[in-house]
């Protein structure tokens, strides 16, 4: 199944260290952790500003909701290397030209990180968020409202899929995965 939760050893333990050993930049490791350990979407990572990351209190603000969440990280040195307290309104993640890091760049970082970690299938943001949601919902037994806030979802009912027992082959990671969209049906007919 395309977006089924990945079966990672002790959810995400040691992946950031593997990336550091593989020569990934501090920015790539921090962007990877923002998605995989904190459940951020690519657009939220790209829009992250210096004022949204408070390393002294170990928290990060989700731009879509404005909620402050605990910053989950294995390599706080990667985050400290990017911190710039002098310019609080500047972007936290920057491209080589100094502009905003694109969503596509974040997808590429995630894909390359999955390859470096030796995952059998390419890692994508939906899989990473689904895996984190299942880990938080089942292993850490978070309440539905707390889990929804942590994942950046508006409605606590949308996290029910993370609270069910995890069987990667049986549970779709999103409601759209359980049925084919009309566009896909028409594309299949054309072939």
UniProtKB/TrEMBL annotation:
UniProt xrefs under SUPFAM superfamilies: DNA breaking-rejoining enzymes
Pfam family, one: Phage_integrase
One GO MF term attached to the UniProt entry: DNA binding
Biased composition regions of type Basic residues, renumbered to the chain: 181-191
Domain of life: Bacteria
GO biological process: DNA integration; DNA recombination
Domain Tyr recombinase: 7-176
This protein's UniProt keywords: DNA recombination
Ranges where the record places region Disordered: 167-191
Protein name per its UniProtKB record: Tyr recombinase domain-containing protein
Organism: Ahniella affigens
